[in-house]
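**Backbone shape codes:**
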Amino acid sequence: MDLSQYPNFKRFSGRNILAVDFGTKVTGTATFCPGRDPFPLLCKNIIYQSDEDLIKEISELVTEEGIDVLILGLPLFTDGTESKMTQRVKEFAKLLSAKVAPTEFHLQDETLSSFEAEDRMKNSPEYNFKVNMKKIDMLAASIILEDFIKS
């Protein structure tokens, strides 16, 4: 997939981006540097224990990876309306964005990113045409990152 044709590719060229797929069990992350990386790369899963622990782990990733831009997936219903989880993620976003400041911070609609991740796995020899639950959250994060670049 060639992302270089999208305006956000040029806008964020040469900047290290971290995408986060928030989860109350597992949070997936992916990184991408437009102009350097060929596509978003799976980074790591973080096992959820508390908001504080998750923020600490993400903050450490921001420092270790030299992240310039942080993208947090925002779960919405397919019609764009909000759920209880949307509100939960917005509250988390306030805490996270304050902790990683001055890193640029964005929320990105993540509607159907987990379904897209499952579909890609089922159709990819890389995943043996099977859903790999150990990587699904990271792949969802990479899809959130792709959607951000395309938006």
User: Anything to note?
Assistant: The helical segments are 7-11, 51-64, 84-100, 113-122, 136-150. The longest strand covers residues 26-32.
